[in-house]
Amino acid sequence: MASANPPARLNRTLLLLLGAVLLVAGAAGLALGLAPVRAVFQALDPAAPLLPPAPDPPGWMPWAATAAAVVVGLLALRWLLAQVRRRPRTRTWTLPSSEVDGRDTGATRMHADHAADALAADIDGYDGVRRAAAVLVGDRTRPQVHLEVTADAGADLAALRTRISEHALPRMREALGIDGDRTDLVLRLATDDANRSRVG
Predict the structure, then answer these.
(1) Whether 10 and 46 share a structural domain
(2) Predicted pLDDT of residue 120
(3) Burial class (CB in 10 A: 0-12, 13-18, 19+), 146
(4) Distance between terminal CA atoms of the chain?
(5) How far apart are CA 135 and CA 89, in angstroms?
(6) What is the pLDDT of residue 1?
(7) Helix, strand, coil percentages in the chain from 3-state DSSP, rounded to 5
(8) d(CA 57, CA 148)
């Protein structure tokens, strides 16, 4: 299932890994500063020289360093490219066939963007809503719904959230013939200082 913001998830993962590495390194440095620990690990004494006076590295070390630099560079490039991908990937859905006057109407193919536009237009008609944007990703039977709604200053965000949950989303489910969805709702107040409230 695609995420609403893949770069944010990647950034959180990288920051978590970096934080763990720094935490371990800091704890190790603190431990080596204690005399009892230095007595146990005498070879790790900070006062000891890191390299012998005349180091003679093996011939493969420059190649290994180059390969490691290439890998790190490719990972950094992958991370930069991920920052550009903000919009989740959508797809074309096949809606189940239905009967009208005893005749089978056949299956209907619809792009998820069309359903998202209809959902956004429905919410955009609510009182106090300035803008609404929606993205539907994943499988049609249980899509992941990403909503961003900007409301007027002073709007009741709790009431707006309730109306979206009890009106707009059920209408979408009925139109698509699905039982449920996973919703990520972001509500913003249209103020100069860009106050923001995230619920859902």
Answers:
(1) yes
(2) 92
(3) buried
(4) 18
(5) 9
(6) 36
(7) 45, 20, 35
(8) 57
Q: Is 40 exposed, middle or buried (0-12, 13-18, 19+ CB in 10 A)?
A: exposed
Nearest CA to 180 among 149, 148, 138, 122? 138
Task: Report CA-CA distances (Å) from 42 to 24, 34, 47.
Answer: 20, 12, 10
In the predicted model, what is the mean pLDDT of the chain? 76
Which amino acid appears at position 132 of this protein? Answer: A
Residue 86's nearest CA partner among 45, 22, 133, 20 is 133
If asked whether residues 113 and 193 sit together in one domain, one would say yes
CB atoms within 10 A of CB 143: 26
pLDDT digits (tens, 9 = 90+) for 137-185: 877 777 888 899 999 888 888 899 999 999 999 988 888 877 777 888 8
In a domain, 103, yes or no: no
Cα–Cα distance between 127 and 171 in angstroms, integer? 18
- Domain of 16 in residue numbering reads as 6-51+59-84
